[in-house]
Amino acid sequence: MPSVTYELLAICPHTGARRGRLTTPHGKVETPAFMPVGTQGTVKGIGSEDLEAMGFELVLSNTYHLSLRPGSERVERLGGLHKLMDWAGSILTDSGGYQVMSLSDMRRLNDEGVWFKSHLDGSEHFLSPERSIEIQGQLGVDMSMCLDECPPYPCTREEAARAMQRTHLWAPRNLAARREGQAVFGIVQGGVHEDLRQESAQLMASLPFEGYAIGGVSVGEPTEMQYPVVKFAAPLLPKEKVRYLMGVGHPQDILHAVGCGVDLFDCVLPTRMARHATLYTLNGRVNVLNKKWEEHMGPHDPASLFPPVDRYSAAYIRHLFKAKEMLGQRLATLHNVSFYARLMAEIRQAIEHGTWPELQQRYARA
Amino acid sequence: MPSVTYELLAICPHTGARRGRLTTPHGKVETPAFMPVGTQGTVKGIGSEDLEAMGFELVLSNTYHLSLRPGSERVERLGGLHKLMDWAGSILTDSGGYQVMSLSDMRRLNDEGVWFKSHLDGSEHFLSPERSIEIQGQLGVDMSMCLDECPPYPCTREEAARAMQRTHLWAPRNLAARREGQAVFGIVQGGVHEDLRQESAQLMASLPFEGYAIGGVSVGEPTEMQYPVVKFAAPLLPKEKVRYLMGVGHPQDILHAVGCGVDLFDCVLPTRMARHATLYTLNGRVNVLNKKWEEHMGPHDPASLFPPVDRYSAAYIRHLFKAKEMLGQRLATLHNVSFYARLMAEIRQAIEHGTWPELQQRYARA
């Protein structure tokens, strides 16, 4: 019996959207779900008590960052990442590959793995499928991602194909490195090329992964480029497993992908935008520093009120950002992450109740 | 009927410590009480919901900062500082004088007032007793402090006497500038000189202030220098009014001053120390970055546990500080401010129950 299972509960009558439920060693996760990003074992500025209050069941954390600090061997000695964060819900980690290729000083990449220098202290490290799965096992998370090669954007068809082939070469090595009961998700590559995505999905589906991700979609390309790729790539993934679109996205991007049959999302946008003074609302994104909020004692959007932020006025939040007070970043983060929690709850409801068109209408400007 | 009244409930049988109750337009404040410092209309990193959860009834905010940003005229248009912060408890503001003299580029100081340039944008401003009381009236706080002249440390007896004389000159001007119902506290100066303190206390007591502060004690001098000054200055203040020791201090300093008959305190130490990785505990101050906490899955001090911080281990909090995650500063701030809330609650209990010696024992290393 695999430690992570997916149950399909309903399909939207208007789109291919799936209402489902993941069961992990740490409980249930109602899908479609958004994972707040806790890069270094914390969603910036907010604690596990806040995530619980917002109703999250699953968060994402970053293998690259945690393996460098505090170190995965240490996290394992301390009882695992759940215990360290005191988080009773589920955790998914990425493989570390994307950060190695984007943040670190990458020294060499070949079929064996990737050699890199830490962005923290320049120390030398090695990441391979085996090592990535080992680190994620040490962290003790519920869902591990396989190490893939994610080509940069833009890239030629040849580069996309080569990255895909290495991802395929690595796939069984990821699986072979699993601990007893460790759930690992496969990643489908192939860039913007339908035939490559098809080939990649077929190869991955033939291997016993507990879930499948669409990789290489959110790596710097314009948002509108993603849509056709998601549209043809999502239905290629096995129906009986959970489907995860990595690194996506704005509310509109998530709505589109859910409509294509995707179940899981993660993205730094709500937290990063919050720290940069931008709130998501049903009326579109709002810059809290805008002069129009200077003496506005109401909320930015009366239809987007989330505790404990909703007690504060737009004027107060603008003041906090102007005064560079960290409470401003905290409140904005709580607002945006709550906005995403509500978005996903309403997506799940709309699939169940057959009210997808009304939902799309409601989020048309978000 | 003055808007702020003080009721003396009990006197400690072991010391001169007073158990009392302030009544303000925003409710009751059990004393002795510590006021967390919300310099710019927020206690750094924590919201009104956190202050409520910790049981605070009174906070301090800074006239100098708020008058420059967002501006006291604006705060008044917005309904006052309580409404801006959404804080239902009481607020006391300082006069702004101390910050003008320590933070700004002070241009000229004479009997009329003080001309200075803002530390934010270099703009020119003027502060006088009348203007300070006007600003505090615009902020709409429960208790305003009179503008005094606070001499630097160290200073000669002559300098202390001159500052005291200007403070006396300004005292009635502060009172004359009050709005209907605005409660103003007088400040006793006189440095380390008993006769000057006596003279100052007498002059101030002759004026209809709603409370009295011991000024010029915490302005850079070593902590042990404060004790004799507090010891002879506190009993000089009117018994029927609340007594406030400005800018003090560590738990030991507060215990000493309460024993001398002081009722109110404010200090940036618990919040500033927290941001600099130092926690107050019953076992003394703790540096959360110390290597000994690296794999310590328990708390720093099992006798100092405060929600929501108490769910996290010393190892996690060290990791957050190492990784420069703002959750670390928030949790440390909540810990220290909670430590002070408990200290004051236990002080009030000890006075009521006659258990001061046990209390002193308990906090001997704090």
Q: Can you lay out the helices and strands and say which pair or pack?
A:
Two copies of one chain form a homodimer.
Chain A: E1 5-11, E2 18-24, E3 27-31, E4 33-35, E5 37-38, H1 48-53, E6 58-61, H2 63-68, H3 72-77, H4 81-85, E7 90-93, H5 97-102, E8 105-109, E9 114-117, E10 124-127, H6 129-139, E11 143-145, H7 157-176, E12 183-188, H8 194-205, E13 211-214, H9 223-233, E14 242-245, H10 251-259, E15 264-266, H11 269-275, E16 278-279, E17 286-287, H12 314-322, H13 326-353, H14 356-362
Parallel strand pairs in A: 4-15, 5-6, 6-7, 7-11, 11-12, 12-13, 13-14, 14-15
Antiparallel strand pairs in A: 1-2, 2-3, 8-9, 9-10, 16-17
Helix pairs in contact in A: 6-7, 7-8, 11-13, 12-13, 13-14
Characterise this structure.
2 copies of one chain form a homodimer. Helix content of chain A is 39%, strand content 19%. Chain A has 14 helices and 17 strands. In chain A, the strands form 4 sheets. A 9-stranded parallel β-sheet of chain A has the order 4-15-14-13-12-11-7-6-5. Chain A has a 3-stranded antiparallel β-sheet with strand order 1-2-3. The model of chain A has no long low-confidence stretch (mean pLDDT 96). The interface between A and B is large, with 39 and 39 residues.
